[in-house]
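input
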Amino acid sequence: MFSENNIQDIKDRLGWSEFEKVLYVDKLSTANLSKTSGLTLNNFHKLVTIENVFMCQPDRGITDDRFNDYLEELLENVIREILTEVFVLDSRAMKNKDYSTVISEMANGGIFDRCVGYCHAVKVLELFTSTTRSNRIETIAGHNYANLMSELKGYSTKDGVLVSKGLLSYCEENRQILADYHYGSSGTMIYDATNCW
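output
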């Protein structure tokens, strides 16, 4: 289990860069710009920009306040998914155990930063591939659907040789790193002086 405070602690570590087009940065609240880690969400993929998210989110007439809410909800949902996978669904997780203290310590140490950044980038690129605002999807860096999918899934040759990893791979790798960091990658695990096999 985890708490809303855990989500906020992790969310506070990553924010949007203020070095984008002024028109779009001016739309952002302080909460979306602040980042205690110094890392920006834009850093995890070149297409993850405020402009691209703004132009692909579903509401063409969205206000600045609603757009900020949209960005915060997007990030919170990514964090919830990660915490659920690692601390609830992982086969090594103990049912009904409160992990909030451990999560808080890991968050303060920056352990979640890369995982959240890459998984957030995945959600943003998924937004591009599913947007109903067709005027924007063709414009995003001249990409077509196949190119966006290779950004997400990676690219392999016809023989199955991996040429480049996609964002999904980075997201999954970093989730596994989180789980292994917390539970250990092998050996006996001890929780509260009780062996868990």
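quick obs: DSSP finds ten helices and six strands in the chain.
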